[in-house]
Amino acid sequence: MALVLSSPAFADHASIPSVYTCQGQDVSPPLEWSGVPAGTKSLALIVDDPDAPDPAAPKLTWVHWVVYNLPPVAGGFAQGAGELPAGARHGRNDWGRGDYGGPCPPIGRHRYFFKLYALDTLLPDLKNPTKAKLEVAMQGHVLAKAELVGTYRKD
After folding, report:
1. Which end of the chain is more exposed for a tag (fewer CB within 10 A), N or C?
2. Phi first, then psi: what are they for 62, rounded to 5°?
3. Positions of E strands within 1-154
4. Does residue 98 surpass a pLDDT of 80?
């Protein structure tokens, strides 16, 4: 069975409801995962937008959420996951915060990639890592990856 990431709030490649954006409550959407491979010691989650600032001329990938050392048995997050499971850690998003920052595109419809990684290790305390620092720490430890893509355009 493959690692699968989904959300009861939106389908893959469908629009993210505004409650999870800067135009709503800016809370994280509920997420569910299954098919965690044997040997998984921890999970990592990265949410980013490769269409910033303008999907017609993207210049950078904006990072919305970084979480690591999630226990493999967690199974998901409820809406507004402020409390992480024991041992899990937040990284730093591109707003310089350690929590979820929802979609807030300045122009056009953007894609938001929710990427879940199954790792064969528990990572050391990386002290609020950026996406780049987490990706370096994960190198050579990824057993499986799942992806969920949502889209959003401001009204």
Report:
1. C
2. -90, 125
3. 4-6, 14-15, 31-34, 42-52, 60-70, 76-77, 89-90, 110-119, 142-152
4. yes
- Among 115, 149, 141, 140, which Cα is nearest to 42's? 141
- The residue written with tokens 């493959």 in the block is 2
Handedness of CA 22, 84, 36, 61 (dihedral sign): positive
Tell me the average pLDDT across 72-91: 88
Residue 110: DSSP 8-state: E
Mapped onto helix, strand or coil, the DSSP state of residue 135 is helix
pTM of the complete model: 0.96
Q: Which of these, 13, 3, 9, 2, lies nearest to 148 by C-alpha position?
A: 13
Averaged pLDDT, 39-57: 97
**What are the CA-CA distances from residue 57 to residues 54, 107, 108, 141 (Å)?**
5, 11, 11, 33
